């Protein structure tokens, strides 16, 4: 099966050069669900590109009859971010022009002038597929008005233009997967929305963060939040439903590198997920153990970030992926002074038990710089 490959112009640079997106579209023999997968929205987070490369290579080997529906793949989905450098480092987490985090710019249907409660009331006697079709239509219609406004290029920032192009590729999808890694260094884990925990196991990752709060600005949130809002409204009317619509952010290892183990986990997880969702018909997936996979979830509010209480250099930090107990030393700060005193070593203790899932790359800290993150009260 060969993909249809199309390029989409994004931006003309001052030098006269253009930046573009390239989309790889695999279409199965029969229509079905659509999965949309992108990587490298944050410039340093490159591991998903290797995952997409492997997926393309594997999908090409399949017969059209093994794909029900379609899979769209967009590697290096943020060229400005990918190409950004500060000295030797990939610094493309923020748009250097307006300072915005590239993954906090997206369009959320729920924040437009819509009355989802009223829509839910109008649909409560319809079937789930009918409601889904009608709601999708509403979202796409509203999105058209956004597209119209961005057509006036004299009034459109790059963030607005870029998000519109990216979201136009996925708003009609059923499954959205946004491949990230830490911009620093991290274990492999995913972000999971509440009520989608069972599906999360299909990615076969060991850890996840459960999104008990979100504002809709991130790519995964912007896609799913309006659907979760409708589910909530229907539930309040006594109609408990779950749309077969999901979005995920996979965090595959560390920034500025493509750790083979993280890449392998990403490929395996996505294949297993797509097989569980019956998009892909593969011999080796889904794995029978999927429903029993021990995914340890922690609430987003219990993923705690530690910042340096004073300036200095970090030493003897606990290993990434290790567990700590309350009161144990997380790391030390070698602290110098200009008060005619000797340098000091300061122990920083864990304020609660948990798993170290993300650590800073830079071991030099100004006061209040980020040092590490702990998943507290991890549960299975
Ligand atoms: Zn990211």
From TrEMBL:
Q: Where is the signal peptide?
A: none
Gene Ontology MF terms in the entry: carboxypeptidase activity; hydrolase activity, acting on ester bonds; metal ion binding
What superkingdom does the record give? Bacteria
The record, for Gene3D superfamilies, names: 2.40.50.100, Zn peptidases
Residues covered by the Succinylglutamate desuccinylase/Aspartoacylase catalytic domain: 31-275
Write out the entry's keywords from A to Z: Carboxypeptidase, Hydrolase, Metal-binding, Protease, Zinc
Q: What cofactor is needed? A: Zn(2+)
Q: Which PANTHER family match?
A: BLL3975 PROTEIN
The protein's name is: Zinc carboxypeptidase family protein
- Identify the species of origin: Lyngbya aestuarii BL J
